[in-house]
Amino acid sequence: xxxxxxxxILEPLLPSREVLxxxxxxxxxxxFVNIPKGIKAYIPIxxxxxxxxxxxxxxxxxxxxxSYLTKEIVQKNWNELWEKxxxxxxxxxxxxxxxxxxxxxxxxxxxxxISPKMSFGTGHHQTTYMIAAKLFDLQLNxxxxxxxxxxxxxxxxxxxxxGANMVWAVxxxxxxxxxxxxxxxxxxVSDIYVFRGDATCLTNQRFxxxxxxxNRNILLExxxxxxxxLIEDGLLILSGFYKTxxxxxxxxxxxxxxxxxxxxxxxxxxxxxxxK
Length: 276
Description:
Strand content: 25-35%
Oligomer: single chain
Distance between the termini: 48 Å
CATH superfamily of the largest domain: Vaccinia Virus protein VP39
Structural class: alpha/beta
Number of domains: 2
CATH topology of the largest domain: Rossmann fold
Order of helices and strands: EHEEEHEEEHEHEHEEHEHEE
Mean pLDDT: 88
Strand order of the largest sheet: 10-9-8-11-12-14-13
Radius of gyration: 18 Å
Helix content: 25-40%
């Protein structure tokens, strides 16, 4: 299968590169390679649509200058490219998220081994990092947790390793479903329940904590289902959107009877905590 390589040159580099990766990932781009002045993104030639760039918020960040070049290429070894650029991530000096080829951490630090392949969620993105960090502030022993839009399964794995009882991990994408299963086995937490689907697969379950790191529009559509699945006094953590989206997300939550507890912000991205 042939691919289109899009090489983006970004000035300044941050935070536009991270935002761009997140948005392109939602447009079926399968792999990314960091370069000194930007990023190279790869998508099957049949899925390429240059017009979609006009809607990318990453390219509308004030003060950003950008350009891009495209070329058709043959399929590459995505894992090899990824291994050259993936660094381990340390969460609050309590957890390291690393690739299988990285060294193990010192004893006493939670070791989470992730091979993301095409899935979102290595801890590098601001939204994943904020939720992962928040999981170390909460009491998770013996509670039931749902990770919606699980990607690699990294948040579900951290919750389980932090003492959670029943953990569900749900994603609509087949590759994310398969990747989460692989990463659960890799981290010896095979008792996590992994499902392929969306909020419609939630019926009569009840959770103490629900995590949803998804884009704003899906959160607005599915927040009612999340609220229905929370026990009384349960917690809902939402991310995947910008700080400027706070009002619309918060209003939806208030309409559903949820109480705002806290907002965290990292480089323009937001994480919201609500209580039922």
